[in-house]
Amino acid sequence: MINFRYHVVSITSVFLALAIGLVLGTAALNGPVANDLNSRVTDLRAANNQLRGQVSDLDKQVQGRDAFVKQVAPTMLAGTLTGKRVLLVTLPGAGSENPQGVQNMLEAAGATVTGTLGFTAEIVDPTRNDDALDLATRLTPPGVSALPTNNDGVETASALFGRVFATGKANVSDAARTSLVSGFGGLKFVDASAKVGPADAVVFVAGIPITGRDADRRNANIDLIVTQFAASFDRAVLAGPTVAGGGNVVAAVRGDDTLATKISTVDTAGSAEGQLAAAMAVAERFAGKAGQYGAGDGATAPVPSLAKPAAK
Q1: 211-263, pLDDT tens digit by residue?
Q2: The total number of structural domains that make up the chain
Q3: Least confident interval from 21-30, 152-161, 204-213
Q4: CA atoms within 13 A on the CB side of 229
């Protein structure tokens, strides 16, 4: 008769057999499996070290290329923008390093940079639309007309700045320009840390696209700043990073057949080569030509063709 003790003995026997099998199996396989795993780890470590070495070599190559470009740039650019006034406009997220690099190249070409006007993330915030619109309406100086009337604060403000700072577009006093910059600076819409003067050309320096809350609207507002501001300048260049995906203002300009004939773009602004290309593109705009340069989609060449000095 099968009783409780029988079941206990049976179950105990099964588990004992399993334990013995596991021990024997582990002992039999431990050597080959462990050796195989150790070999794989060693191979992966060697491959990782090799990749680290390649990355280090590439970094050195990039640094060497940037150093070379900076060394030859003054000779390449000499006299190409002598007597020309250029306004530098930084867009939200541009930082300071890339704009400074572009400015160095412009000055190496002989240009006078009349100032840096920095648009902040506040002005592209949709919740600040009414503030920007009200400010633009109140600070529009006499002699400036035909501004957009669709109640879009970014569009109206950008068009106003373009009219006020583009040479020959409006009869505006220095006091009116100072008042405009100070007013927008007071609401943190622009960086008003330095005096900004009128110019014959404008160079925009962009950052990476905005992400997160209201990203589409904010990036669209950056596009508006460029298009409305540049509408008053016969010579405009946009320099930004090579970024795939939506929200890239460089891609937006290149994707518009009309804008692409009026605004030159450079998508490698984070490198010395791209900063050189931006200065060369300004000289090319004075010659009446627009182009798309860099390494990203839509670029036709890394840099513009070397131009003769711009006519005075």
Answers
A1: 999 999 999 999 999 999 999 999 999 999 876 667 899 999 999 999 999 99
A2: 2
A3: 21-30
A4: 29
Same domain, 148 and 202: yes
Distance CA 129, CA 155 (A): 10
Whether 46 and 190 map to the same domain: the answer is no
| Torsion, Cα of 125, 129, 131, 136 (10° steps) | 110
Rg (CA), the chain: 30
Structural domain span for residue 41: 1-77
**Phi-psi region at 187: left, alpha or beta (left = phi > 0; alpha = psi -120 to 50):** alpha
Note the pLDDT tens digit of each residue in 6-44: 555 566 665 655 666 655 566 555 666 667 767 777 877
- Give the confidence band of 1 by pLDDT, cuts at 50, 70, 90: very low
Report how far residue 8's alpha carbon sits from residue 12's, in angstroms, rounded to the nearest whole number.
6
**Two tokens, residue 208:** 């990476």
198 with 278, same domain: the answer is yes
Domain for residue 159, yes or no?
yes
Q: Among 35, 56, 77, identify where a domain stops.
A: 77
Q: Write b or e for each residue in 253-291: b if 16 or more Cβ atoms lie within 10 A of its Cβ, otherwise e.
A: bbeeeebbebbbbbbbbbbbbbbbbbbbbbbbbbeeebb
Nearest alpha-carbon partner for 119 in 42, 203, 192: 192
Give the pair of three-digit tokens for residue 135.
């400010």
Distance, CA of 10 to CA of 4 (rounded, Å): 10
Tokens, residue 166? 């583009």
pLDDT tens-digit readout, 265-296: 999 999 999 999 999 999 999 999 999 999 99
User: How, if at all, do strands 190-191 and 112-119 pair?
Assistant: antiparallel
Distances (CA, A) of 8 to 5, 12, 14, 18: 5, 6, 10, 16
Are the C-beta atoms of residues 133 and 153 closer than 8 Å to each other? yes
What distance lies between CA 247 and its chain's CA centroid? 10
